[in-house]
Amino acid sequence: MPKFLLHVEGLFVFLISVYFYFQNEFSWLLFILLFFSPDLSMLGYLINNKIGSICYNLFHTYILAIILLMAGFIWSIDLLLALGLILSAHIAMDRSIGYGLKYPSHFKDTHLHKVAS
């Protein structure tokens, strides 16, 4: 049951992020171009599993997204708001389909479960 709730939570965060992106009338071209950019953090796995998991997790926790959103809101910088919403949408989409934060043991070992091959 907790795993199911985490997937549903991801879906709701995704929908809320996309809704607020739409409400703010940000560029959909920017959204499309940057939506999968956090996955570039997987390049850290070319070094080793530990560096890979650190890089991946840095760009797949809500901490960075919240910092971008707060900074954009406080300083009225639309680009930061847009980037925060894109990042939160990406993370949420990953969570909703079962991709979680990575353990340093292996790319497929996540906080949600072991990703199937």
Automatic annotation (TrEMBL):
Q: Source organism's superkingdom?
A: Bacteria
Query: What transmembrane ranges does the database entry give?
Result: 6-22, 29-47, 59-87
Alphabetic keyword roster: Membrane, Transmembrane, Transmembrane helix
Q: Tell me what this protein is called.
A: DUF4260 domain-containing protein
Q: Which organism is it from?
A: Fictibacillus arsenicus
